[in-house]
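Sample intake sheet
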Amino acid sequence: MPTYDYACPACGHEFEVFQSMNDKRLTKCPQSGCKGKVVRKIGVGAGFVFKGSGFYITDYRSEGYKTAAKQDSAPAAAAPAAAAAPAAPAAAAAPAAKESKPAKGKGKAGGG
């Protein structure tokens, strides 16, 4: 059974009532001394949960997935720190890479 919000424009009283969808709307203000008519406000509705595949990646993951994700993220976090430390060897490796490219090109052209 839903909860409905009501408001009385005459006295400004706002309240909620837990009633069936088949029940008639309230018409009289429950505030003592007020003879105004109440108005049912538009409700926000109920919350719901998506289950199954096709929704947010982080929702409803199994414990096995969570532990595997932690193991994958731990080496990835260590890799950027290791790559930033050896600046000189990375500069020496760059010319070697340039030399190997023509060798690959000769191998393809000669084998064809």
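Comment: The beta strands are 3-7, 14-18, 39-40. The chain has a mean pLDDT of 73.
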